[in-house]
Design a protein that fits this description.
single chain, alpha/beta, TIM Barrel
Length: 262
């Protein structure tokens, strides 16, 4: 059975790791290079690096910071933010990333997913899905949001579940589903969103947004059928450690890569 993954996320703004609530009111969490080294040593299965304002600012990702982070880790690294072309993807992979995450650029040019998958393989292309519940919708549904780095962003006019399914068909090899409603709240992942996505797609699904405890991670895997769980604030501010999360999940029967293997 494939092991489930625990993935810390570094949201980087102006060269520093930050964390907010629902993409707002960011506060400093530390230096990305130092934190990357810490998570690698602590036993994280993978690491995600997002330059969160690159797309909203209309600029390129901070290549030098990505290179320094990549130098510190020996686990798979996903990099996203401001990637608009296959050439941008190539620069990130050359800088040390194992996977690239695209959101806004993929919405604006869906063929970018296919181009990236053909050039580098499906396993390298991650769809970053920022999803927000549509107020009052019955049955519940979610819309795709873009340019979300420092605030709520804007609606892409797309149904999140339909877009995820299309992105997988185009060649995305993984989906990171970030609930904008739950992000930073530590009240648990959006299990309905995760369940709907797992029904609509067959590619690996990473739960993001709302982690407050190892119990929440278990729910995302068990009820949401996620293949991995991403978390930020609970790890950054030492509310829980990678080891605590892995120990709890293992105690609930979840197949987890042991810390001794890191």
């Amino acid at each position: 059975m494939l092991t489930k993954r625990i993935i810390p996320c570094l949201d980087v703004k102006a060269g520093r790791v930050v964390k907010g609530v629902r993409f707002r009111d960011h506060r400093d969490a530390g230096d990305p290079v130092e934190m990357a080294a810490w998570y690698d040593a602590e036993g994280a299965d993978e690491l995600v690096f997002y330059d969160i304002t690159a797309s909203s600012d209309g600029r390129d990702i901070m290549l030098d910071v990505v290179e320094r982070v990549a130098d510190q880790v020996f686990i798979p690294l996903t990099v996203g933010g401001g990637l608009r072309t296959v050439a941008d993807m190539h620069r990130m992979l050359k800088a040390g990333a194992d996977k690239v995450s695209i959101n806004t650029a993929a919405v604006e040019n869906p063929d970018l997913i296919r181009q990236g998958a053909e050039q580098f393989g499906n396993q390298c292309i991650v769809l970053g899905l920022d999803a927000m519940r549509v107020a009052g919708a019955e049955p519940v549904r979610w819309e795709v949001r873009v340019r979300t780095g420092d605030g709520g962003g804007q609606s892409a006019g797309l149904d999140a579940i339909e877009w995820a399914a299309r992105a997988a068909e185009l060649g995305a090899g993984e989906i990171v589903a970030n609930s904008m409603d739950a992000d930073g709240t530590r009240e648990g992942y959006d299990l309905e969103l995760l369940s709907a996505l797992s029904e609509a797609t067959t590619v690996p699904l990473v739960a993001s947004g709302g982690a407050g405890s190892p119990e929440h991670m278990y729910d995302a895997i068990d009820r949401g059928r996620a293949d991995a769980v991403l978390a930020a604030s609970i790890f950054h501010y030492r509310v829980h450690s990678i080891g605590e999360a892995k120990e709890y999940l293992a105690s609930r029967g979840v197949p987890i890569r042991p810390l001794s293997a890191g």
